[in-house]
């Protein structure tokens, strides 16, 4: 199969798990009814709560989270792949993680990825974030197979680290997923250009489902979910921050075609330095 219909779910995730499941599940069902066989949700699909003291007692393991359980049941009922872009969960060692989970059409979790790069920043205008105060970062890159899709899994701030995307492409990924809860200032400035850059550099599709709008916990997120083809063109996008479903058809031969035209992955050379001439 060279063509595959996919869907990105743009959410405005609430601050409780029960409300989050009620919010996302109808859009997943809408996407499946429209013919999507692979459906991806944003970062923080299961809950968004920026107050650490409130959030941490709410978190459960991946196996015990009711949003994960509900989406696993939906994947099995609908016969589709679902990528939970990320869920905020408790790791096996008791620490918190920001974790992607790939669910097969039989409801099984077939791959997980913990966000590598923590969003620890002081933005112009006074907004700050310290993800490392809440979450333990992952320590490995992950590729996974979802039907005919060869996936590379990443989350949000990972976008700013091109070496990760090159490593995923070299390992065989032809579609990289970048679920996100981008801030509004960084979204307005950098969202689309960075997504297109990662696609062009690696000759990969980019699927970027996003959080959007003003959330219950007071945060504002950018929305504007998009799909970028391996040549760098945006082939589907939402031009707003409202919840919704974005459909796109992927030509799975496009990655090989782009990589043959510009063989940057094959042409890269090892080098030493830089060496100061001073």
How would you briefly describe this protein structure?
This protein is α/β, with parallel strands linked by helices. The protein contains seven helices and 16 strands. The chain has a single domain (3-266), classed as Carbon-nitrogen hydrolase (Nitrilase/N-carbamoyl-D-aminoacid amidohydrolase), CATH 3.60.110.10.
Number of helices: 7
Roughly what fraction of the amino acids lie in strands?
25-35%
Alpha-beta content class: alpha/beta
Number of domains: 1
Using the coordinates shown, work out and report the CATH topology: Nitrilase/N-carbamoyl-D-aminoacid amidohydrolase
State the name of the first-level CATH class: Alpha Beta
Which oligomeric form is depicted? single chain
Strand order of the largest sheet: 5-4-3-2-1-16
End-to-end separation in angstroms reads: 57 Å
Radius of gyration, rounded? Answer: 18 Å
Kindly report the name of the CATH homologous superfamily. Carbon-nitrogen hydrolase
The major beta sheet can be summarized as:
6 strands, mixed
Order of helices and strands: EHEHHEEEEEEEHEHEEEEEEHH
Q: What are the segments in which pLDDT stays under 50 over at least 5 consecutive residues?
A: none
Label the CATH architecture. 4-Layer Sandwich
- Strand element count: 16
Percentage of helical residues? 25-40%
